[in-house]
Design goal:
Layout: H1 7-19, H2 23-35, H3 37-60, H4 62-68, H5 70-100, H6 121-130, H7 133-143, H8 154-189, H9 191-213
Helix pairs in contact: 1-8, 2-3, 2-6, 2-8, 2-9, 3-6, 3-7, 3-8, 4-7, 5-9, 8-9
Membrane topology: Multi-pass membrane protein
Keywords: Cell membrane, Membrane, Transmembrane, Transmembrane helix
Protein name: Leucine efflux protein LeuE
Length: about 220
């Protein structure tokens, strides 16, 4: 169908890949827990736009360019790792502020946390998605296995595969967003729980940054 081969295997692999934790899904969950459903979907929209751009770049051959050019790959890699580290530091600073004020029960108990001042969930999620060269390489390596080389319109095959990937991402991130809003109620009641969760998220983002910085093409 449309040059796509072995569709059941693609769908099975796609589900497993979507379920693997990563900086995108963790950030969406964090935003939903702190700021509610609307902000969660704003962050998710950034992820979907970023993934769409990466899929398009992969289909256009940019992944091969990154793989062949070590300098270019290194620039993108360290830029992405630096951005993830910057987000991690921001989360850890916010968590430290929560720990220092954990004895203060204020109006935060009845209103969602606003999150860092000036936080723009869409832009942050978009940048996290785009500054990940391994994601570009993954998309081309995964997609190409399910495109019939004899099909006359391979771009259409990539569109079909990408659409299915986005549908799976929408379902998964929606589940995370609504799970995050349930966590938000507990966070508002317990400052220590909120501080601990924010600390854990910051530590995970530092781990993502370290992993990306040591990645190779």
């Amino acid at each position: 169908m449309f040059g796509v081969v072995d569709l059941p295997t693609y769908l099975a692999g796609l589900v497993l890949i979507i379920l693997l934790p990563g900086p995108n899904s963790l950030y969406v969950l964090s935003v939903a827990a702190r700021r509610g459903v609307r902000s969660g979907y704003t962050a998710a929209a950034g992820v979907w736009c970023g993934d769409a751009v990466l899929m398009t770049l992969s289909a256009a051959g940019v992944a091969s360019l990154l793989q062949a050019n070590a300098v270019l790959f290194g620039i993108v890699k360290y830029a992405g790792a630096g951005y993830l580290a910057w987000l991690a530091v921001g989360m850890l600073r916010a968590a430290w502020g929560m720990w220092r004020g954990r004895g203060e029960e204020s109006a935060a108990e009845t209103a969602p946390a606003a999150g860092p001042t000036g936080e723009r969930p869409f832009r942050r999620a978009l940048v996290v998605s785009l500054l990940n060269p391994k994601a570009i390489l993954f998309f081309i390596a995964f997609f190409v296995q399910f495109v019939d080389p004899a099909y006359a319109y391979p771009a259409l095959s990539f569109v079909v595969l990408g659409t299915l990937a986005q549908i799976a991402s929408v379902l998964y991130l929606s589940a995370l967003i609504f799970s995050g809003t349930r966590l938000a109620a507990a966070f508002r009641r317990r400052r220590r729980l909120s501080a601990g969760a924010t600390s854990a998220a910051g530590a995970l983002f530092l781990g993502f940054a370290a992993k990306l910085s040591t990645a190779s093409a």
